[in-house]
Amino acid sequence: MLLRKSNLGNYILKYIIPLIWIAALRERGADFVKDMLNDEAASRKTVGQTTLKLSSRSGADAEAEDAKLLRELIRKSETQFPDRRKLHVDKTALGTAVELVYATYGQLSLGSAHPTISALGRHLQSELEGDTRRFVLHVVPDVSEKDMLRTIRWGCEAFMGVIVACNEMIGGTPMNDAIRQAFDDQQLALGVEPDKPSAGKMQDNEQ
Length: 207
What we know:
Layout: H1 5-28, H2 30-57, H3 65-80, H4 89-93, H5 101-113, H6 117-121, E1 124-129, E2 132-137, H7 145-169, H8 176-189
Antiparallel strand pairs: 1-2
């Protein structure tokens, strides 16, 4: 099976973003729930307005029943959520127990998960043929073992962070000891003594 770093990067982001959201929920409680509702309202308004705009440009009838319904839904949402605004990952992570995780998010976003110049550059290699230098496009780029292991490590840390945070938020479960042991084992495998914070490593924040 071919394991691609780009796929891993996207997979890990699915854990890192919920981890940041869970940490913010743990810190701010109901206030963050309101922010999440306002974030969704802002997104829905953007999607609705974009749909109306693009449909109109494509020749759709702006007075059609579905267009009227969509505008009415947008108006209701504006009334219900007057403070709607988008949440940003960096600002949400700031001040939480896992704020350092945003650095990992940024590296993954730049390096492989999104179509940045750095990410796309992984697919291009310069090769010399005689006196001619050519750029060769590789659909599946080569990934070093070190790079792959680091990405897998990030995934394990993010996944464990979500487990620990969720367990704490609900006041503990019958799996407390197993989770604690799994977290300690992971830290030891990374060369970190349990309960001692390390820059760049995800840590639980037990009170």
